[in-house]
């Protein structure tokens, strides 16, 4: 929770110059910015990933120690009308999670570090409100496919050899909101988005009674993105 609070504070600080655009009678910046059929840009940001586990039987739950990772990518936007845009946001996402498995006395058995490098391909629909001076709030949502380059899916080793395996391809849906700020030379957009995997990512251990995965019926990523977009 503290990490999320810190992230929101950073988001607020970076938006201070843009907040001046809320003046009742501002000078209108980039008046024709949204009129072209196609728009381009890029984004930078950070993320925090978690797991949602499904268990076969009641038992002590797996603990997840979350950390912040980073996002970077490109934006292609197709204008449908004044309020709707279709966006493609291919990006590179990096994150690391540490899993703590119950029932072990040795740290080498109980702890697994899961490093993930995702190539993410989201197709999103952006629904904006009417522009008010130099700012415009919006909602965004859609589906995405992620390729996890650190999945270890094809590894012959499993947790008995210290290797935690996940599926390489992950299917998600994404929901978020943000505000477009029209500055003097570019459009700056802070946004917050939730990412929810709908496909099971777990590759079970070779032993069906494995103390690591034997009680798991499924595992899905849950993520929080805070992005800063420049167009």
UniProtKB/TrEMBL annotation:
Residues 37-201 form the Outer membrane protein beta-barrel domain. InterPro entries: Beta-barrel_OMP_2. It comes from the Bacteria. Keywords: Signal. Residues 1-20 form the signal peptide. Pfam families: OMP_b-brl_2. This is PorT family protein.
